[in-house]
Amino acid sequence: MDSALVYAAIAAAVILVLAVAAVALRRRGGAAGIEQGGTTPRISDVVPVETSRPEPELVESREGVLEFAVSEVEVPEPAAGRLHRLRTRLARSNTAIGQGLLALLSRDSIDAATWEEIEETLLLADLGVGPTNEIIERLRTALRVEGGARSPDAVKDALREALLALVDPSLDRELATTAPNRPAVVMIVGVNGTGKTTTTGKLARLLVAEGRSVVLGAADTFRAAAAEQLQTWGDRVGAVVVRGPEGGDPAAVAFDAVSAGVRDGADTVVIDTAGRLHTKAGLMDELDKVKRVIEKQSQVDEVLLVLDATTGQNGLVQARVFSESVNVTGIVLTKLDGTARGGIVIAVQRELGVPVKLVGLGEGPDDLAPFDPVEFVDALVAG
Ligand SMILES: Nc1nc2c(ncn2[C@@H]2O[C@H](COP(=O)(O)OP(=O)(O)OP(=O)(O)O)[C@@H](O)[C@H]2O)c(=O)[nH]1
Ligand SMILES: [Mg+2]
């Protein structure tokens, strides 16, 4: 009985010593945090902190090695309000047009020569002949109702209404970036230099900002730098990037990217494609093949055609060629920050019957905005 008590006392003493030692060690380990944060213990000392950073993983593809590195993960800017933030860039290059039109429309009498000047201004903004005539008709009607006493506000309202009707706020500009029980698949197409890879990277950021998990497919195997460029974008926001060997089959990379998306339970897979091949017919055939191969395992939900707004009518020709080969579901108009040809938004929608869904307004990582017709028109007639 006595010896049992002694054993119990020894055991209790040992436990006490170990506990004191453990507390002392823990204090010493946490000292830096406590010093930095004053007397308040850090949250990480109490609750394990969740990070959104994906674990690095290596997966084999059919054609090569899929790799993705996760370094410093950035938090991109939310999608909402981006066009508002960027509207000054749009305004900077297009306000001249808006102001020019307002000045012409505010003249005491709008004679035939003035209407011609209005027409010229609209055509120079790349609106296209059909939409230009339509706007002029709308303005004539609106201003006839107003009569001689046209207040500056009435003129501005008439122009705003006419432009808005042509930009068409009723079009569905929602991006199909989610699908039930599988990742949504988005293909990015367009000729070289229009901004496809940049747009793919910026779109990944936009989606991550909305809490989606994203897989990027580097299906531009035409040049090695393209995959490298996409990898950098992916790494910045912790998106998985699926790559293949240079000169490899782009359709295989796209297929692998979708497989990776399905395996990882990703929300969206975005496929960057090549903009240049040896022949134009070759490029269209290749895009068609990429799409067909993806469709062996998943629907393609969105085909976004990237057009450089500064290329004007040439962009429209490209749009026609692409839309004949792949079923374009939305347009991304890049470099709108560097042009006074904002009218291309209206012209290209008319040409393809497909809405502009995103606009690029700079080279910054978050300079891609969902297109909003009201914001856009307001920026044009601002001032
Ligand atoms: N100012 C401005 N520059 C842009 C915009 N979007 C893209 N760029 C620039 O356009 C250049 C070409 O962009 P990329 O994304 O490499 O074009 P790409 O279509 O992938 O080109 P290829 O891979 O050669 O077919 C880059 O210097 C981008 O920074 C934009 O909205 N505004
Ligand atoms: Mg590219």
UniProtKB/TrEMBL annotation:
The keyword Membrane applies. GO terms for biological process: SRP-dependent cotranslational protein targeting to membrane. It is found in: Cell membrane. SMART domains: AAA, SRP54, SRP54_N. Keywords: Cell membrane, Cytoplasm, GTP-binding, Hydrolase, Membrane, Nucleotide-binding, Receptor, Transmembrane, Transmembrane helix. GO terms for cellular component: cytoplasm; plasma membrane. Residues 355-368 form the SRP54-type proteins GTP-binding domain. Belongs to the GTP-binding SRP family. HAMAP family: FtsY. This is Unannotated protein. It comes from freshwater metagenome.
